[in-house]
Amino acid sequence: MILTEIDHVAIAVYDLDKAVSYYQKAFGAKVHHREVVESDGVEEALIKVADSYIQLTTATHDDSPIAKFLEKRGEGLHHIGYRVDNCEEALQAMIDAGARPIDLAPRPGSRGTTVAFIHPKGSQGTLIELVEE
């Protein structure tokens, strides 16, 4: 099995501070990590749940993928991140199985991770992020 666990569930939000406040009030959640990822045009707040995260994410500029998602669909589930031991091998295995990659090679992600995205077309309608810690 290439997938080792669920790394995170990403939720696109308009207002990151408001979403964080909601999770704090509703669940007693605390932000484990917060970061702006300039290369993706997002700011994220990670809330730790066991060994996984809820990733609340918002756009930092109008042409980022999250901005486009919010414009088309509004707030909600954006993607799921699967933890893998080797992102390059997992990406190739998915391509070999017929997946349509967004990233042709792994690249740096938040928290010092290595990531690669798989397009929802070819992945049963779900945007997938492969995450190597």
Kindly summarize this structure in a few lines.
It contains three helices and eight strands. It is α+β, with helices and mostly antiparallel strands and 133 residues long.
How would you portray this structure in words?
With 133 residues, this protein is of the alpha+beta class. The protein has one domain (3-132): 2,3-Dihydroxybiphenyl 1,2-Dioxygenase, domain 1. It is built from three helices and eight strands. An eight-stranded mixed β-sheet has the order 2-3-4-1-5-8-7-6. Strand 2 (31-37) and strand 3 (42-49) form a beta hairpin. The longest helix is centred in the N-terminal third of the chain and has 12 residues, at 16-27. It starts with a strand and ends with a strand. The mean pLDDT is 96.
Structural topology:
Layout (H helix, E strand, L loop, with lengths): L2 E10 L3 H12 L3 E7 L4 E8 L2 E8 L5 H9 L2 E9 L2 H10 L10 E2 L5 E5 L9 E5 L1
Parallel strand pairs: 1-4, 5-8
Antiparallel strand pairs: 1-5, 2-3, 3-4, 6-7, 7-8
Helix-strand string: EHEEEHEHEEE
List the domain count as a whole number: 1
What is the CATH topology descriptor?
A: 2,3-Dihydroxybiphenyl 1,2-Dioxygenase, domain 1
Which strand order do you get reading across the main beta sheet? 2-3-4-1-5-8-7-6
